[in-house]
Design a protein that fits this description.
The protein is an alpha+beta fold. It is built from three helices and five strands, in the order H-E-E-E-E-E-H-H. A five-stranded antiparallel beta sheet has the order 4-3-2-1-5, with no helix packed on it.
Length: 144
């Protein structure tokens, strides 16, 4: 056998290995997701709607999701994107916030500029026509 044939066969073996490995990972993730899909759990649908899973019909591939009290959506089972895990507050973040609250007010940085003192608008601020023309007296009638 020549060297290029050996390289091609090895490359094919590596590709097949990675294909089977990725399929096994996807199957494991799907099995974990299906085990978490029980009525009463909060889910996110594949199109971004959050709700509480009411029931799953495996034979008809239909799931019922309550998105607000009294509003139940009937969707295809494959639209159940993921189970929403409750967010746990980190203790370090809470303690940093407590330290900021405990500081005296003199340590806080205060911006002294007010909207009336500035001559140009801040980024994203809407500009009123009266504010720009306030330096000229165009509103008063001319006395001739």
């Amino acid at each position: 056998m020549d060297a290029t044939t050996i390289i091609m066969v090895l490359l094919l073996v590596v590709l097949v290995f990675f294909m089977f490995r990725n399929k096994r990972k996807r199957d494991a993730q799907q099995a974990t997701l299906q085990s978490k899909m029980v009525p009463g759990v909060e889910v996110m649908l594949s199109f971004g709607v959050y709700g509480t899973l009411v029931s799953i019909d495996d034979e008809a591939n239909i799931a019922e999701v309550e998105v607000s009290p009294g509003t139940v959506l009937r969707v295809h089972r494959q639209t159940l994107g993921r189970v929403v895990e409750p967010v746990v507050a980190d203790d370090a973040v809470v303690s940093d916030a407590d330290e900021l609250d405990a500081r005296p007010a003199d340590d806080l940085i205060v911006d002294d500029t007010t909207t009336a003192d500035r001559t140009s608008p801040a980024y994203g601020e809407r500009v009123d026509e009266t504010r720009l023309d306030s330096t000229t007296d165009t509103d008063k009638p001319n006395k001739a």
